[in-house]
Amino acid sequence: LDRSSAASDVYKRQDKSKKNCWIVDEVAAEVVVFVFNEYIKDGSTLKSTALATTAKYGELLGRKFSVGSIEHILTYESYHTGIKKISLTDPDTEEIEVFDVKVPILVYGTI
User: Fold this and answer.
1) Is-contact 90 97, C-beta < 8 A?
2) What is the pTM of this model?
3) In this predicted model, what pLDDT tens digit does every residue of 25-82 receive, in sequence order?
4) How many C-beta atoms surround the C-beta of residue 53 within 10 A?
């Protein structure tokens, strides 16, 4: 399993032929929860959160977390709404259909 994209791939389709069958990558989900918990600490910044996340998960995942990746995690609505938007394109007509699918909520509350 490729861990290089960590938190961006928390939700994965268990069966690619089914749009509503999603599972959670437990390590990536742990990173997401860590980022939220780290960011809400007094005095934390995006940079301090990125450094702390890299210190804790960087070696395991083989990557460094940037300010941009932390900001993406903190603003990705699916983590706290439990709704993920999926776009499917009909190969014959090029028509795009967007679906809302339910996924597990990882973070409760707001920052």
Assistant:
1) yes
2) 0.76
3) 889 999 999 999 999 999 999 999 999 999 999 999 999 999 999 999 999 999 989 8
4) 26
How far apart, in Å, are the Cα atoms of 81 and each of 39, 51, 52, 84, 94? 19, 27, 25, 8, 29
pLDDT(107) > 70:
yes
CA–CA distance, 63 with 51 (Å, rounded to integer): 11
Residue 11 and residue 3 in contact, taking contact as beta carbons nearer than 8 Å: no
More confident: 100 or 111: 100
Residues with Cβ within 8 Å of 32's Cβ and at least 6 positions away in sequence, in order, are 7, 10, 73, 79, 106, 107
- DSSP assignment letter at 17: T
In this predicted structure, the answer to whether residue 13 has a pLDDT above a threshold of 70 is no
For the CA atoms of 38, 81, 101, 14, the dihedral, rounded to the nearest 10 degrees, stands at 20
